[in-house]
Write a structure and sequence with these properties.
The chain is α/β, with parallel strands linked by helices and 459 residues long. It has 2 domains: 254 residues, Aldehyde Dehydrogenase, Chain A, domain 1, CATH 3.40.605; 181 residues, 3-Layer(aba) Sandwich (Aldehyde Dehydrogenase, Chain A, domain 2), CATH 3.40.309.10. 39% of the residues lie in helices and 21% in strands. It has 14 helices and 20 strands. α8 links the parallel β8 and β9. α3 runs antiparallel to α6, α4 runs parallel beside α5 and α9 crosses α10. The chain is globular, with a radius of gyration of 23 Å. The mean pLDDT is 98. Bound molecules: succinic acid (SIN).
């Protein structure tokens, strides 16, 4: 059986070798998850909640160890990785509570001799496919609501970052979850996708990743009409209007744009700034961006780690070169951007950005901040919406009418108003258009793991 080498993106050294799960074993694992579902579905909500709380306790107790794994296999700076573990655990804690709030209802019947009850039931075995950019949080925000709802779950973590998942699943077993209620497989996206979409016991697919892969999964899942939640690509606009607090907007741009070295689906991808303040904003942004410490995530004080691999580096360099060719002013020379070598890139601001640049139209997943000036807010909204994506959008304004207009008109599922970090376990995360469907987090995030059944009783 072939082996998977897990690499450290900061050094390209092999951290660990793992056996791929064979296709037969993937099928067998799904079968076992189906067996486990027959038991787990009958466990009462309070016990499911208690197990999730115990899992959360163990995650808190192992925060340093899990964060280190995230940094080693994903490159994220250690302090940020610790933040991710806390964020990941907030989903476990939230759904431990939500497990106890899966309510049904009664419906008044239209004849006196009938009663109608509505109940919520777990959908069954869930197949989850998760990305490398949040190796802990994208796991728990799928696993916790699934388990809370009474489902069992088989997870395929990204091949770049399986170690965090393995540790989280071990801790879940230590917390008392039955072994096959929560499990992982080591597989390529293609093998896992084919197994999950074709196995009849899988009743739900949940995926975070690219839009092209999501489309394939949707098509394949349609054959057996499987329920799916898709959290796909983004191209977040960040609009800064003329009445904004510029310093606060700069801070929020840094927080949004450079989180995980720019490798999140909700990173500010395109920054639109009103022409009255664009020079002031860009200068302040550039000073901060050039002050960011780039390096190995294990080193104290690192703020921007490596990109995940050479392919990611090449994509970012291509966007920079394209912007240069179209009149963009890049705040560092290409030599300076790449001087650290390997998967490291020094962050840059691209001023004088134009709408036809690749960086304004392709998800970047890297540390570049393109800034384009606008004069008319309606035009900025039009450009912001002129994309197949609709995951996250941000805006800065201190005028409530402008803010409400932007909230109402931006076609995005997650919006930050004077807020560069809107993600939270208690809020519904997900996109419009080709950014996917379904929501994760909040009360909405457990719904996709539940079926509605009604009972009509003739007395
Ligand atoms: C993502 O980038 O896919 C998730 C980001 C978040 O949850 O904040």
């Amino acid at each position: 059986m072939s082996k998977l080498s897990v690499l450290n993106p900061a050094t390209n050294a092999v951290i660990k070798e793992l056996e791929y799960t064979s296709n037969e074993e993937i099928t067998a694992q799904i079968d076992r998850a189906y067996e486990a579902f027959q038991e787990w579905r009958t466990v009462d909500a309070h016990e499911r909640s208690a197990k999730l709380l115990k899992w959360a306790e163990l995650i808190d107790a192992h925060i340093d160890e899990i964060a280190e794994l995230i940094t080693l296999e994903g490159g994220k700076p250690l302090a940020e990785a610790k933040g991710e573990v806390a964020y990941a655990n907030s989903y476990v804690k939230w759904y431990a509570e939500e497990a106890k709030r899966i309510y049904g209802r009664t419906i008044p019947a239209n004849t006196p001799d009938k009663e109608i009850l509505v109940g919520k039931f777990p959908v069954g075995v869930v197949g989850a496919i998760t990305p490398w950019n949040f190796p802990a949080a994208m796991i728990t925000r799928k696993m916790a609501p699934a388990l809370a709802a009474g489902c069992t779950i088989v997870c395929k973590p990204a091949v770049q970052t399986p170690l965090t998942t393995i540790r989280l699943v071990e801790l879940a077993h230590e917390a008392g979850f039955p072994k096959d209620a929560i499990s992982f497989i080591i597989a390529s996206g293609r093998d896992a996708g084919e197994a999950f979409t074709s196995h009849e016991a899988i009743r739900k697919i949940t995926f975070t990743g690219s839009t092209p892969v999501g489309k394939t999964l949707i098509k394949d899942a349609a054959d057996s009409v499987k329920n799916a939640t898709m959290e796909l690509g983004g191209l977040a606009p960040f609009i800064i209007h003329k009445d904004a607090d510029i310093d606060a907007a700069v801070e929020a741009t840094i927080a949004s744009k450079f989180r995980n070295a720019g490798q999140t689906c909700i990173c500010a991808n395109r920054i639109y700034v009103h022409e009255d303040i664009v020079d002031q904003y860009t200068e302040k942004l550039m000073t901060k961006v050039h002050g960011l410490k780039v390096g190995n995530g294990m080193d104290e004080g690192t703020e921007v780690g490596p990109l995940i691999n050479q392919g990611a580096v090449d994509k970012v360099l291509d966007q920079i070169t394209d912007a240069m060719g179209k009149g963009g002013h890049v705040s560092r020379s290409l030599d300076e951007v790449t001087e650290l070598g390997g998967n490291f890139l020094k962050p840059v601001v691209i001023s004088n950005a134009k709408q036809d640049m690749k960086v304004m139209n392709e998800e970047t997943f890297g540390p570049i901040a393109p800034v384009m000036a606008y004069s008319d807010l309606d035009e900025a909204i039009k450009i912001a919406n002129d994309t197949p994506f609709g995951l996250a959008a941000y805006f800065y304004t201190n005028d409530y009418r402008t803010g409400l207009k932007l909230y109402n008109e931006l076609e995005y599922g997650v919006i930050g108003w004077n807020d560069g970090g809107p993600s939270a376990a208690h809020a519904p995360f997900g996109g419009f258009k080709e950014s996917g469907y379904g929501r994760e987090g909040g009360t909405e995030g457990i719904e996709p793991y539940l079926e509605t059944k009604y009972l009509s009783i003739k007395k």
